[in-house]
């Protein structure tokens, strides 16, 4: 039996296979992820770019901020193209390798059929040897193969070896090839090879892993310093009810603006003169606060820059303007971290791990600050200043005896002539830019649906049940409001803003949501005559009786519905002058038909819900998109996308019921589910579903939902697995504290704000 033989690649053939596979594993994913791509042109965005001074200056600064973008893209393309060229050359080189004994077939070499006689074999050998003999101009390698094939068919031992082992010489040594060139293990090169191994595995690899680990333990998942997050927790726990300017102070104290924690921060000698001069221009900066780190120099400088940005005070371009661009670009990520910290503190307070509960005003002040930073505008300023070319002097044209234009939605609903009259001080090009920006702003249809999922009666809320509120957001451009006609839903948005002057009633909710089926306990009772009340009560009783007695297959129900319809038509034709009792009976029968037909469609509705759940799960697995719509923000140093927050709160008790959900991919339509636990005591409760923009001022909305909480069934409230060990130790004081967590409509007046 042949032995085993290990050998390095002397000719370099197998090493080319190794290089080919290794290069392909690198090039394919690298080309997919790193090939420079141009942004896809937006067909809707063509010709909609704003040409105001702020936007033009911002685009120029963005281009100048990355001067090496073009050469960097060229270098990446050059490397990738060179890699693919090298891959093609290696593939061609490998295809040229020829192994003589890879497929040794003596009959094929002699060009005869299997089973030929010895005479035919000799004849074929003589004929081919004359052609392939080296002395007569033939190929020596081919002649050697011909001689070996002739020997394999004429020599009895060689023929047996070929038939048994596939080789005329018998079994050879088992060869294991290593796809590395032999010079690697040569003695002369051992020092260089060992040095390369030490450089890669003992220096470069530990350095890369250590750098990555050092950064990962300093930053959170949103690339915010963990020390900054701890500072947020401390101050929000220390001050549960935090005002807006206090939130700005905490934001400016973030360690991202400190040179000791962030090497990108630039400290100049000129700051000692420019920062005090800027502070003198800013009222109520509270720079004499002695709290640490609010009194540190970097914190006061960042606070002054944020106040100057909100007041739209121009800064020195070579120094403080560069700092403003860096500080303001960091603020949205830090504000989102503030919202998360306040939400975590509220959850800890509910779990009784901390004593102080942050108020709903604190987290809402954090959310208010984000659009202020993006637009460079204080909250008490007019939202109309978000439009290009509009300044404080132009605002006087929006207010007159005939009209009081205070919001962007009101301005969009005006007729074209009235809008042009108001902006008569602008040129046609400037007016076109204003209308482009206004038309691209969001107009969101805010729809809310409340139910108890996985319950027998999803419209009935019992004490302690898990209530699911489905928030549907349908985004349109503000240009849909242009024209002479007024859109009803636009009135709902302008009237129901959180910052608005008027408060929307429950009846308005029903008018602006015709497509949503509201639960019975959310519908308001409308006044009517005595006869109509008697009829409706009689119909409700009839519907309940039909629900209890309705049985049978769907086919039988359909046939009964058709028969009842035919009978009703005949009775209506015969007794056209019937009394009120006859009409009531007809209404009762129609209600029976609706109940029966609804039972037929139950299976289809359940299947649709199941498909919707699968679709939502697939969407979650795909990941959350960060692309929605571009925001017009000339004072914000980088490009910004529209994001939104939605949450549920109780305005009466000033508590947050659900964590704020951050919507980052609202392009056309987006849905999310907010879940909370219903109160433990029966009653009628009013909660508020809020929608807040992180990019525009004056686009916030809110809608009230009423929960008629019923008493839970006895078998659930008395079930032993719902009893906790701590329930026996709770005293009457804790019961009163939890009872005041939610407030019914009967406990407090209707208008408490």
From TrEMBL:
Residues 523-538 have a biased composition (Basic residues). One of its GO terms (cellular component) is Sec62/Sec63 complex. The chain crosses the membrane at residues 15-35, 74-92, 191-214. This is J domain-containing protein. One of its GO terms (biological process) is post-translational protein targeting to endoplasmic reticulum membrane. It is found in: Endoplasmic reticulum membrane. Its main location: endoplasmic reticulum. Keywords: Chaperone, Endoplasmic reticulum, Membrane, Protein transport, Transmembrane, Transmembrane helix, Transport. Residues 571-585, 723-753 have a biased composition (Acidic residues). It comes from the Eukaryota. It is a multi-pass membrane protein. InterPro entries: C2_domain_sf (IPR035892), DnaJ_domain (IPR001623), Ig_E-set (IPR014756), J_dom_sf (IPR036869), Sec63-dom (IPR004179). Residues 105-166 form the J domain. It comes from Ignelater luminosus. Pfam families: DnaJ, Sec63. Residues 500-516, 560-570, 586-596, 710-722 have a biased composition (Basic and acidic residues). Residues 497-606, 710-753 are annotated as: Disordered. GO terms for molecular function: protein transmembrane transporter activity; RNA binding.
């Amino acid at each position: 039996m042949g032995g085993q033989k290990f050998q390095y690649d002397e000719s370099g053939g197998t090493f080319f296979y190794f290089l080919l596979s290794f290069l392909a594993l690198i090039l394919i994913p690298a080309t997919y992820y790193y090939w420079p791509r141009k942004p896809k042109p937006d067909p809707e965005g063509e010709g909609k770019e704003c040409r105001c001074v702020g936007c033009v200056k911002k685009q120029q600064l963005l281009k100048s901020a990355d001067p090496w973008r073009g050469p960097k893209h060229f270098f990446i393309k050059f490397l990738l193209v060179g890699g693919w060229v090298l891959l093609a050359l290696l593939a061609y080189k490998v295809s040229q390798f020829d192994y003589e004994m890879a497929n040794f077939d003596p009959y094929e070499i002699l060009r005869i059929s299997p089973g030929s006689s010895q005479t035919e074999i000799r004849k074929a050998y003589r004929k081919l040897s004359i052609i392939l003999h080296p002395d007569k101009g033939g190929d020596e390698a081919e002649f050697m193969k011909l001689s070996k094939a002739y020997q394999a068919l004429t020599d009895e031992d060689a023929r047996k070896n070929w038939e048994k082992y596939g080789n005329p010489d018998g079994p050879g040594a088992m060869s294991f090839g290593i796809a590395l060139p032999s010079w690697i293990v040569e003695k002369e090169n051992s020092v260089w090879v060992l040095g390369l191994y030490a450089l890669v595995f003992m220096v470069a690899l530990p350095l890369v892993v250590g750098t990555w680990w050092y950064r990962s333990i300093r930053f959170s998942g949103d690339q915010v310093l963990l020390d900054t997050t701890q500072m947020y927790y401390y101050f929000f726990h220390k001050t549960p009810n935090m005002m807006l300017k206090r939130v700005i102070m905490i934001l400016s104290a973030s360690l991202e603006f400190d040179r000791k924690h962030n090497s990108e921060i630039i400290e100049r000698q000129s700051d000692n003169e420019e920062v005090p001069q800027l502070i003198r221009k800013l009222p109520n900066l509270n720079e004499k606060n002695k709290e640490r780190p609010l009194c540190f120099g970097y914190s006061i400088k960042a606070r002054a820059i944020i106040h100057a940005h909100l007041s739209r005070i121009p800064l020195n371009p070579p120094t403080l303007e560069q700092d403003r661009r860096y500080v303001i670009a960091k603020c949205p990520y830090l504000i989102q971290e503030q919202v998360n910290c306040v939400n975590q503190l509220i959850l800890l307070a509910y779990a009784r791990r901390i004593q102080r509960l942050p108020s709903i005003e604190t987290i809402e002040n954090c959310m208010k600050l984000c659009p202020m930073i993006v637009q460079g505008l204080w909250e008490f300023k007019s939202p109309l200043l978000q439009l290009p070319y509009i300044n404080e002097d132009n605002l006087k044209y929006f207010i007159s005896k005939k009209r009081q234009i205070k919001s962007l939605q009101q301005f969009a609903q005006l007729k074209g002539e009235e809008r042009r009259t108001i902006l008569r001080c602008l040129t046609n090009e400037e007016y076109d830019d204003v209308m482009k920006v206004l038309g691209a702003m969001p107009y969101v249809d805010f729809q809310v649906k409340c139910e108890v999922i996985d319950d027998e009666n999803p419209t009935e809320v019992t004490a302690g049940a898990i209530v699911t509120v489905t928030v549907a957001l349908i985004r349109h451009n503000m240009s849909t409001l242009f024209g002479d006609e007024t859109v009803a839903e636009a009135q709902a948005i302008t009237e129901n803003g959180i910052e608005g002057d008027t408060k929307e009633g429950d009846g308005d909710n029903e008018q602006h949501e015709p497509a949503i089926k509201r639960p019975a306990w959310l519908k308001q009772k409308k006044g009517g005559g005595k006869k109509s009340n008697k009829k409706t009560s009689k119909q409700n009783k009839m519907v309940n009786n039909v629900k209890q007695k309705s049985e049978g297959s769907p086919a039988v129900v359909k046939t009964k519905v058709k028969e009842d319809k035919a009978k009703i038509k005949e009775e209506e034709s015969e007794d056209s002058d019937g009394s009120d009792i006859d009409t009531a009976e007809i209404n009762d029968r129609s209600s029976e038909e609706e109940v029966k037909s609804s039972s037929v469609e139950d299976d289809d509705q359940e299947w649709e819900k199941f498909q919707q759940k699968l679709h939502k799960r697939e969407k979650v697995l795909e990941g959350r998109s960060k692309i929605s719509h571009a925001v017009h923000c000339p004072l914000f140093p980088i490009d910004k996308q529209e994001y939104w927050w939605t949450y549920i709160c109780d305005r009466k008790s000033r508590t947050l019921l659900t964590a704020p959900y951050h919507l980052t991919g609202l392009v056309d339509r987006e849905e999310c589910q907010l879940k909370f636990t219903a109160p433990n005591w029966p009653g009628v409760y009013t909660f508020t579903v809020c929608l807040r923009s992180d990019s525009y001022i004056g686009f916030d909305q809110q809608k009230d939902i009423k929960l008629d909480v019923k008493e839970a069934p006895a078998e659930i409230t008395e079930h032993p697995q719902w009893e906790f060990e701590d329930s026996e130790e709770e005293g009457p004081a804790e019961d009163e504290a939890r009872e005041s967590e939610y407030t019914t409509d009967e406990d407090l007046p209707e208008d408490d704000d």
